[in-house]
Design goal:
CATH architecture: 3-Layer(aba) Sandwich
Distance between the termini: 11 Å
Oligomer: single chain
Order of helices and strands: EHEHEHEHEHHEHEEHH
CATH class: Alpha Beta
Mean pLDDT: 97
Radius of gyration: 16 Å
Number of strands: 8
Helix content: 40-55%
CATH topology: Rossmann fold
Largest sheet: 8 strands, parallel
Bound molecules: adenosine-5'-triphosphate, magnesium ion
Shape: globular
């Protein structure tokens, strides 16, 4: 499977989700490639920290690609890996568009905030432009990241995401939890933290299990 974590909003949690997904898949025993298609290179920095923390045994392969080569190189690399996870920047870039042409599963984290959900029409427009020219199907999943412990903001955002034309809303919110930034600072997934944050782990497992089940990936 080729996954792209994207959207057109900065700071929604794309790199957090992409890096946790790569490590989740690698822990499942898969041979995984992480593609950093964001010029900010946060996923690449994450991998560098991981190399230090894990003494080189990071569990996946990482490359940096930009623009049209995201499409052409991923097409060449896909036979060599079980899964590929592409992390994109928070804008409608050539890199994100190139990634989508080769993607099977598009993951869209949304913070339950107005500025974030207001970007939904832009994502729908991007998809309406990509899909007619895309040779293979694209599953599009939106979910809440940095959700509040409770409250109307989560419900309002969930309702809006549930009413979109091209996005499938997955009701597996990832809460706003310090464990995510603490783990990232060491190049780790929340699955690897000690002490473990049980809620963060169960949310990440829940989200990925639900999505993978829909595609019969095990
Ligand atoms: N569920 C969460 N709980 C707490 N903090 C989070 C969560 N998800 C992300 N963060 C934090 O929010 C910040 C932005 O996250 P991240 O870098 O993953 O977003 P991004 O969408 O990749 O940003 P960019 O658009 O700049 O690439 C980081 O400091 C990250 O640690
Ligand atoms: Mg990022």
């Amino acid at each position: 499977m080729i996954f792209t974590v994207g959207g057109v909003k900065g700071g929604s949690g794309k790199t957090t989700i992409a890096t946790n997904l790569v490590i989740y898949l690698s822990k499942m025993g898969s041979d995984v490639l992480l593609v950093d298609a964001d010029d900010q290179e946060t996923a690449t920095d994450f991998t560098a920290w991981r190399e230090e923390t894990k003494d080189g045994n990071i569990g996946y392969t990482a490359v940096k690609l930009t623009g049209e080569s995201v499409r052409s190189q991923v097409l060449k690399l896909q036979e060599k890996y079980d899964h590929i996870v592409i992390d994109t920047g928070g804008r409608d870039t050539n890199s994100q568009r190139a990634a989508l042409y080769v993607t099977d599963i598009y993951l869209l984290p949304f913070n339950p905030r107005s500025f974030d959900v207001w970007t939904v029409p832009k994502v729908e427009k991007l998809l309406s432009e990509i899909l007619p020219a895309k040779p293979s199907p694209l599953a599009v999943y939106a979910f809440l990241n940095r959700a509040d412990p409770r409250g109307a903001d989560n419900d309002d955002a969930a309702e809006l995401l549930g009413q979109t034309e091209r996005l499938t809303f997955i009701d597996c919110p990832i809460g706003g939890r310090k464990a995510f930034s603490h783990a990232a600072a060491k190049g780790l997934s929340v699955l690897e933290m000690n002490p473990i944050d049980e809620k963060a782990v169960s949310e990440i497992n829940g989200l990925f299990q639900n999505i993978l089940k829909l595609h019969e990936v095990s």
